[in-house]
Structure formats: C-alpha cells, structure tokens
Specification:
This protein has strands at 2-13, 17-18, 25-33, 48-55, 70-84, 89-103. It is mainly β. A hairpin with a 4-residue loop joins strand 5 and strand 6. It starts with a strand and ends with a strand.
C-alpha cells in the first residue's frame, strides 16, 4: 500500500547494511513529520517519527541526505503475519519503505 506524497524532515540517515542472510542490502532513514499547529502557531501534538528502509539498487538512486534536510517522499507500507511455532504466538510486523524521495 502506498502513502501519498508528503513533506518530511530527515531525522537520521544510517549507513547501508546487509540483511542477515546477505542476499539483500538496505539503508535505514528516519523521517520526521512535524506536528500540526493551532491558530496561534503552537504545536498541538508530538511530531511523528518513521523508520523507513530503502532496498537494494534503490540505495544508489538516493540523493545525498543529511539530518535536517527537507524532503518530499512517497512511502510504502507492508504488513506481515508471522507465527512463532516455538511459543505458539502470532506476531505482526509493519515495514515502511521509501518508494520515492526528493530534496526540497
């Protein structure tokens, strides 16, 4: 599922790393969505923070990003269900991927 384009601030950019099995490469980027403000300019909620990942060849296409950069991004959300057979628990994971990003 795609989240339409929004504006964010870059909170943190991590170096690219390999998955545990070494078959894929990913880079984590923390995006901050500033909270809405009221008619007096006061922040009415906390900022939202999102840990996002960029995968494989898309890493090379990223613009040079640093903390504080303003960006427009399209995000993809994927949710999966996993059963821990040892404990008999069902767990749910949500992953947010950056599908498109550009500096403002």
């Amino acid at each position: 599922m795609l989240i339409p384009e929004h504006k964010y601030l870059i909170e943190k950019v991590y170096p690219a790393e390999n998955t545990q099995n070494g078959r894929h490469k990913f880079q984590r980027i923390i995006l901050r969505k500033p909270a809405p403000r009221d008619e007096f300019g006061d922040q009415v909620m906390k900022d939202d923070l999102f840990e996002c990942k960029v995968w494989n060849a898309a890493i090379a296409e990223l613009p040079a990003l640093k903390t504080g950069d303003k960006v427009k991004a399209v995000l993809g959300i994927q949710g999966v269900e996993h059963t821990d057979t040892a404990k008999g628990h069902v767990m749910y994971y949500t992953q947010i991927s950056i599908r498109k990003i550009e500096k403002l």
